[in-house]
From TrEMBL:
GO biological process: respiratory electron transport chain
Membrane topology listed for this record: Multi-pass membrane protein
Protein name: Cytochrome B
Residue ranges constituting the Cytochrome b561 bacterial/Ni-hydrogenase domain according to the UniProt record: 24-185
InterPro entries, per the entry: Cyt_b561_bac/Ni-Hgenase, Di-haem_cyt_TM, Hydrogenase_cytochrome
Pfam families per the UniProt record, alphabetical: Ni_hydr_CYTB
Transmembrane helix among keywords: yes
Keywords, sorted A to Z: Cell membrane, Membrane, Transmembrane, Transmembrane helix
TM stretches of this protein: 28-46, 52-71, 112-132, 152-172
Source organism (scientific name): Rhizobium vallis
Amino acid sequence: MTSALLQKQEGREPSQTASGTVKVWDPAVRLFHWTVVSACILNLFILEEGKYWHRLTGYVVAAAIAMRIIWGFVGTKHARFADFFPTPSRVRAQIAGIIKGTEQRYIGHNPLASIMMLGLMTLLAATALTGWMTTLDAFWGDKWLEEVHGAIANGIMLLAFIHAGAAVVESWRHRENLVWSMITGRKKYENSSHRR
């Protein structure tokens, strides 16, 4: 008897385990997340701007974003943009739920986290693009492009700090370690309270 069939007979969803967790983040999503985290730490705080390793790290991020965009259409349920795209009604419902104290728990990305994720992806892509542009003869020595590149990088740093802080707050509010779930790929399964 297959594991999924056995779990169905026991009243659990196929990806739910006896330990009360459910598989949420697939390896591609987790690889993207930790690649971007590592690259941001390297390029913002460690590597020298404009040098070989800084540029190479930027190209890795560009490749990771391209992979994540493709995976957002063909990947697993919670990796797909359709699962978490932050429509105005979803965002309004979450904000209203937070204000009223009736916020639903999301297994995947919640609407506000989705805005953050898509915003960070956009800034990362813009940083990779402007960084690449600085290597072209057409923009050689143009200070304005370097300033734009730096400003976008500072925006990434600001959003990354907000994102990390929100993960800590949400971990406390929902009593689950969201950072650990991005390592293991699993989150608590609560049939009565989770929505997506």
